[in-house]
Write a structure and sequence with these properties.
- This protein is an alpha/beta fold.
- It has three domains: about 45 residues; about 100 residues; about 160 residues, no CATH class.
- About 50% of the residues lie in helices and about 10% in strands.
- The protein has a five-stranded mixed sheet with strand order 3-2-1-4-5.
- The longest helix has 27 residues.
- It starts with a helix and ends in a 20-residue tail after the last helix.
């Protein structure tokens, strides 16, 4: 976030006070002491006022905030990207989170409203992802929208491991049996594919490394799912210039194969991945031209397309993933399984 004019002025006054105090140590004169007092008074005045100039009210309405929960089911889903029962489930999941507890004299707005604002923000991309759209609809401030989105995101992440997790031995055996009977591919427990979460602006740190083959700045995200389109693992944190095979090779799934696979269990990946004991890819030309290999590739493709559909569903629900408008300015540990 860019530095405000108030922050710049405070930083400048702080430097001035330091220099004046240093001069006073060298030469104790009344004129310099007066300058120091003036700078200190000005610093205190700015510090006590949150805004430098007078503020003007922005025309807004809170009507949508009161009407959104009375929308028809189809309208509700178009607006918040989830059904009403699903919204109720998520609300019940996070409503008791400490982030929504009252910390001052003024109580927080209803958790349901905060969740609705966050879901609309997650489900929009481009200009629709602007805070000002939500400001007009919900009658809240732009900074309030950011605060609500941050609270909801952090509250949801507390339950990440409960819903996105590697399958147990029993679930892997069920997946293996399904693929053997349905496609004739024994040992398959899931599919892996990579996708890019793009930034609308070049990151300030290592921006060139995030430039991908589609001429956009992004993070490479590895996704593993099963036959039910249930996401089993998400691994990210690598810049968009990295190949899928490179990123996935560094993931916990391949770094700790004994924990995630039995001897005969594998994942299906596209030709961008390296063939290994636990990753099966289609044949490449000229071997793919042989009839038996071509038949295998057809079965492989019809099975692996499930992960592409899963990523498509995920991004269509959370459309903000198609273009994140946040400016990346800091290095932060973000690799997550």
């Amino acid at each position: 976030m860019p530095e405000s004019e108030r922050a710049k002025l405070l930083r400048s006054l702080s430097s001035t006070i330091f220099c004046q105090a240093l001069l006073d140590e060298l030469d104790d004169s009344d004129s310099q002491s007066a300058d120091l007092d003036e700078a200190q008074d000005m610093y205190c005045e700015v510090k006590l006022n949150r805004y430098l100039g007078s503020r003007s009210n922005v025309a807004r309405s809170g009507a949508h905030r009161h009407l959104v929960f009375d929308l028809r089911d189809d309208e509700f889903k178009k607006s918040l990207r989830v059904t009403k029962p699903m919204f109720e489930s998520v609300w019940q999941l996070i409503r008791g989170d400490v982030r929504f507890a009252q910390r001052g004299t003024k109580p927080q707005r209803d958790v349901a409203v905060q969740l609705a604002i966050a879901l609309e923000w997650f489900g929009a991309c481009g200009n629709g992802n602007s805070n000002w759209n939500l400001v007009r609809h919900y009658g809240v401030g732009a900074g309030t929208v950011t605060a609500y989105v941050s609270r909801v995101r952090q509250a949801l992440l507390q339950h990440y491991g409960r819903y996105v997790k590697w399958p147990s031995d029993i679930h892997r055996a069920v997946s293996s049996a399904f693929h053997r009977e349905r496609y004739g591919l024994p040992g398959v427990i899931g599919m892996v594919d990579g996708t890019h979460v793009c930034f609308d602006q070049k990151p300030h740190i290592d921006g060139a490394l995030h430039y991908n083959r589609k001429c956009r700045y992004s993070l490479n995200v590895q996704v593993v799912c099963n036959e039910d389109k249930r996401i089993l693992m998400i691994y990210t944190g690598w810049p968009g210039s990295c190949a899928d095979s490179t990123v996935f090779a560094k993931s916990p799934v391949l770094q700790q194969t004994s924990k995630h696979f039995k001897a005969d269990q594998v994942l299906l990946g596209d030709s961008g991945y390296t063939v290994s004991k636990h990753v099966i890819t289609p044949y490449k030309k000229p071997a793919a031209l042989r009839p038996d290999n071509a038949a295998f590739n057809d079965v492989h493709c019809s099975t692996r397309v499930i992960v592409e559909n899963t990523i498509g569903l995920w991004k269509n629900r959370g459309m903000s993933l198609k273009g994140i408008r946040t400016q990346v300015r800091k290095k932060r540990l973000c690799c997550r399984q």
